[in-house]
Amino acid sequence: MKIIFMGSPDFSTHILERLMEEGHDITLVVTQPDRAKGRGSRQGTPSDVGRYAEKNNLPTIKPQRIRDEEPINFIKNTEADIIVAAAFGQIIPKEILEYPGFGCVNVHASLLPKYRGASPIQQAILDGEKETGVSIMQMDEGLDTGDIISQQTVGIADDETGGSLFEKLAEEGATLLSRTLRQIEKGSAKRTPQGESPTPLTKQIKKSAGRIDFSKSAKEIERLVRAYDPWPCGYTFLGKKTLKIFKCEVLEGQTQTTPGRVIRSDDRLYVGCGEGALSITRLQLEGKKRMAIDDFLRGRKVPLGTVLGDVTDG
Predict the structure, then answer these.
(1) Which of 50, 78, 104, 286 could form a disulfide with 46 if both were Cys (CB 3.0 to 4.6 A apart)?
(2) Smallest Cα–Cα separation from 272: which of 296, 303, 297, 307?
């Protein structure tokens, strides 16, 4: 099929790569504009999809606003049977959605209508879900509200991180899209309208979302640490330095202590929470490398009673 592809992050790159491998004709790639990365940086960095398209010599546009007349006209003058979108990052206007013969389909990383929006992968882990999945939907003007064409369920492991679930869903999404495009081309694809979503719209994740609030339960914090690995990472403060936490375990039972207070620090690091406590097992202090807790404690003492998150402490 002749396909216009719209996407931006690495999740989208997996989808685009599979389309290329299967011999589809990618007539145009539409991705987000280059963005400056890093403090003080002025040089624009392409999106993951932008880098892949450049490497593979695919025609590409990077509109600031997909709703502007120029990108709309450019897309409508590009030959295509269908548009495939995956985490593009902008609302696509009706003129584009209805342009190709088969319209526009979207690969979304949840079992719609659950977890519409920008961060379905992380939110499923935050909520303690045991399964999630991928949906292929026929796009309409709403936000992830179009008719569902196909879905695939994916289990969430007890130690699942945002990164590992991302990899699972990207692979399943690429496979499901491949099967669904064949059905669309043959005219055998069926569309099922969505009902109301049982979950709130998921939002774009900001770096501040990773800051740990130790007044929450140990279970909630442990899920946050996994959900936001590899970005923005669950983090707190030890003294005035940022302390990223990459792995921790829940210690059951109530703790009668100030949330964030260190209650063991000999060869283990236990921290009290609003409910229960956490054993921190892998972490990274600002300016240091990531390490296991026993290696960390051999190089730095953390006195009992230290309160993590209190930037005036220590």
Answers:
(1) 50
(2) 307
